[in-house]
């Protein structure tokens, strides 16, 4: 398959992905909580210890400066808190508040209800095919280079592109 055919498939899929998955996901989030903010909460909730801004940025595939904006939103909504690092006072660490942990739990219930309705309406064969397609996309996305148009089409290093 040539690049043009792949491009056409991607462009045809994006509106459907947006309409059926991304937009409903965003509508489930509380006011002021963006998908990026929610993603940062998931990353922080899965971490054994508070993360530095650099660690959070790297996990989210964004720069430290972009991660700072996301963390500011966490703080603004009382979902995160900053703390110092005992071994290096220049490092700021981020951790979730109890409010954030409760939000994640309640949001997981909302997601489960929405996706449960969505997927239960699919025929078993379509569910199997969809799951396989998602596994394939996940595997390929992990290997796919980031080519940033903001940088004149140059490949960018991990964490330096805009999400």
Keywords, separated by commas or semicolons:
disordered C terminus; three-stranded antiparallel β-sheet; 163 residues; mainly alpha; single chain
Explain what you see:
- The protein has helices at 3-28, 35-46, 53-59, 64-76, 98-120, 124-143, and strands spanning 51-52, 80-84, 92-96.
- It is built from 6 helices and 3 strands.
- The two termini are 27 Å apart.
- Residues 157-163 have low confidence and may be disordered.
- Helix 2 (35-46) crosses helix 4 (64-76) and helix 3 (53-59) crosses helix 4.
- The protein is mainly alpha-helical and 163 residues long.
- It is 62% helix and 7% strand.
- It is globular.
- A 3-stranded antiparallel beta sheet has the order 1-3-2.
Brief write-up:
With 163 residues, this protein is mainly alpha-helical. It contains 6 helices and 3 strands.
For the sheet with most strands, the description reads: 3 strands, antiparallel
Determine the mean pLDDT. 88
Per DSSP E runs of 2 or more residues, the count of β-strands stands at 3
Fraction of residues in H or I helices: 55-70%
- Class inferred from helices and paired strands: mainly alpha
Helices and strands, in N-to-C order?
Answer: HHEHHEEHH
- Sequence of strands across the biggest β-sheet: 1-3-2
Number of helices: 6
Strand coverage percent: 5-15%
Question: How would you describe the shape?
Answer: globular
Radius of gyration, in angstroms, nearest whole number:
18 Å
Distance between the termini: 27 Å
Q: Ranges with pLDDT <50 over ≥5 residues?
A: 157-163
Task: Compile the SSE list and pairings.
Blueprint: H1 3-28, H2 35-46, E1 51-52, H3 53-59, H4 64-76, E2 80-84, E3 92-96, H5 98-120, H6 124-143
Antiparallel strand pairs: 1-3, 2-3
Helix pairs in contact: 2-4, 3-4
């Amino acid at each position: 398959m040539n690049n043009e055919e792949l491009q056409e498939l991607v462009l045809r899929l994006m509106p459907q992905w947006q309409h059926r998955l991304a937009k409903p996901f965003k509508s489930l989030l509380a006011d002021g909580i963006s998908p990026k903010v929610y993603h940062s909460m998931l990353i922080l909730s899965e971490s054994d210890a508070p993360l530095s801004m650099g660690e959070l940025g790297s996990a989210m595939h964004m720069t430290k400066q972009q991660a700072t904006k996301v963390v500011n939103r966490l703080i603004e909504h009382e979902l995160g808190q900053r703390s110092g690092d005992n071994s290096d006072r220049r490092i700021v660490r981020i951790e979730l508040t109890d409010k954030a942990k409760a939000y994640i739990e309640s949001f997981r219930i909302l997601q489960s209800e929405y996706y449960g309705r969505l997927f239960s309406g699919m025929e078993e064969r379509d569910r199997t095919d969809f799951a396989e397609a998602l596994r394939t996309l996940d595997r390929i996305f992990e290997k796919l280079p980031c080519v940033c148009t903001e940088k004149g089409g140059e490949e960018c290093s991990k964490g330096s592109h805009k999400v």
